[in-house]
Every structure is written in C-alpha cells, then in structure tokens.
Amino acid sequence: MSLQALVKLSRLYGADPEFVLAGGGNTSWKDEALLYVKASGVSLATIDETGFVRLTRACLERILSRTFPERVEEREREVVAALLDCRIPGEEKRPSVETLLHHVIPYRYVVHTHPALVNGVLCSLEGERIARELFGEEALWMPYTTPGYVLSREFHRVVAGWQGGELPRIVFLQNHGVFVSEDSPEGVIGLYTRLMERIRPLFPHVPPPFGGVIQPLEGEIPGMLERIVQEVSAGTSEGVYLMSRDPVFEACLAAEEGMEGVKGAFTPDHIVYAGPAPLFLPTRGGVPEEEEARARTRGYLEEYGVLPRIFLLQGEGVVARASSEKAARTALLLFHDARRISLCAQTLGGPRFLAREDVEFILNWEAERFRSRVSLDQGGNR
C-alpha cells in the first residue's frame, strides 16, 4: 500500500513542470528493512511500481562506513558496485545516484525536486540568508557538495552530529534542489505547499515554465553550424538543431553582455542536458559570420572539453544542438529553466554558478552519463 502511495506522490510532482523537467527528481519510501527508491532513468511523471529499486538498508548503512579510494574514478566505480550489491535478489535496475541520501533521511517518504523558483534562491548570492529568514529552523541548508556518495556522506555526518531536536524535513541543497520528507504523503504535500507559498512571493514577475514554440532551425544556419561542429571536433556531429524565440530569452539574445545571467551552470541537471554554458554567436543580417562562429566554437571546445549544446544567435533565437529531437528539446527546456532561475537570482544579489571543478566533475561523471542516456531514451532522470 505504501509503494502505491509513493507512485501517486511521484506522479503528482513528476507531471508538474514547476517542480521537475525532463522527468527529473527522485523519490523514495522506506521501512525499517527496505528502501524503495526511483531507478536511475525512470520518469516520475509516468512511474509505476516497477520503476523503483528495492535495497536492503543494512547494506546501505555499511556503505557509509566503508573507506573508498581517493581517486574519483575508482571511488565512483566502487560506490556504484556497492549500491548494486544492496539490491534484493531479482532487482536489475540501477538505483538513483541519491540513494544513500534517501536512506539517511529519517522520514519514510522523500521527494527530491528542482523547482526553478526554489533554485532561484539556492542559486543566488543571498540564498542562504533568504532561506534562513523564510524558514528558520524548519529547513537545513547545505552548501554545494558533489552529488551522489560525497553528498550522502556529508549529510550522514550532519545527521550523526545533529543536536537540535528533530531533523528538519526540508533540506535545501545549494545549486542543486530541495529534499522534502515526512512520514506520510499528505505530510510531504503539505510541506511542499507551504514551501512554495513562502518562496513564490519573492518572484512575482518571473515567467511560468516553458510553454512556447520549439521549431526546427531552417535556412543556411544549421548547415553552417553542422559544418563547424564537424571541423572543430574531427568529424563528431550530433546533427539535430531546434530553435526557440521565447520572450524570456530576449535580453540574452540582444547582445553578448545580456548573457551574463546565464553564462555558467546553475545545477548538475543543467550541465547534463544543456551543457556547461551557452555559446553566444554574433550575427549579421540574421546569420552568424562563419569564421567567427568557428573560432568561438573551437574556443568553447578547448575550454570545456565538450561541444556547445546551446547557441545564442544574436537577435534571432536560442538554438539547441543534440543527437535527437528529444535531446534538443530537453536542452531548450533546461536552458529556459536556467533563464528563469537567473531572473529570480538577479533579485537576490545575483546568480551563483557552479565552480569550474564542480562542472568538470559532472561532465566526467559516469553516473550522470548513464542517467542522461537512459532518461533521453525513456523520458526520466536521476
């Protein structure tokens, strides 16, 4: 019965673009022995009982006391193997990268989402102060920490040393999202309602989630971009180009200075689906100058080690490039989300982007590559 309630709760937030995009977020329910957590790559909007992975909590607890290698690649590989070993016999899906955090949280139902309005606070320079003013001891603020095992280990340390009575049921993760937990679905829903009622008035003029038109990029520009991408990446090209002229993008398309509020990455999801940063391309007569576009694309590849997924065509529109129409559409949705976060953060001291080393970790994290691949195939996330 509790798993059925978790399915219903998951779909409630998974289907609402104010809380998750591209099937994002993750959820869980636990008893004393087992944790039921969303499988990596499964969409919350359409999840059923088969979309959760069952793991033994005693096994998960042992992971938290283990010593793992210092080298990132070795550590992450061993952590994944350890998590898979905690599955009960017959389970084949890979659990969410946040599984250990779900285990550590002491309440039975946990719903983790990435609302743009909440991230407007969490990705701003004054975010921690605002969160304390709005929620006081009702919420716990955690500075940005590498997702997955490292974050779970740090949260476990906080919980082990907690001396302030009951652990807050709201956990804000800087540049990431929010965990809301309670011992009943109704409790989770009530907490989320109160949370949004306090945050929404901060941003009365921020536009709603994306509802505009996404269309194929036509004319000579897609051929030019394809040619440039092939040249600078020695023949590697993803091939599908979609464009949006949504009004929320106007300021960052007018001039290069206008993209200051979106020049970096706000959260891991933005990196995974929309890339570490957009690339601004000046235009003349509505078309980029090819040599300038080539030089900028090459410079981007040298700086980030990946090709740009989002191009800002001056005065024209935002273009997403990806391996499929679904992936390109997802990139545009995530970049629109980043723009909404930026507009919120600009009223709270300005945006706070992820540090370069944190961006590089996400770009090279096998767990993120896995869930990106699965989610774009099936419509889920994390």
UniProtKB/TrEMBL annotation:
Domain Class II aldolase/adducin N-terminal residues, every copy: 5-203
Q: What Pfam families is this protein classified in?
A: Aldolase_II
Name the domain of life this protein comes from.
Bacteria
| Residues annotated as signal peptide | none
Q: Which Gene3D superfamilies match?
A: Class II aldolase/adducin N-terminal domain
**InterPro entries reported for this sequence:** Aldolase_II/adducin_N, Aldolase_II/adducin_N_sf
Output this protein's name. Short chain dehydrogenase
Specify the species: Winmispira thermophila (strain ATCC 49972 / DSM 6192 / RI 19.B1)
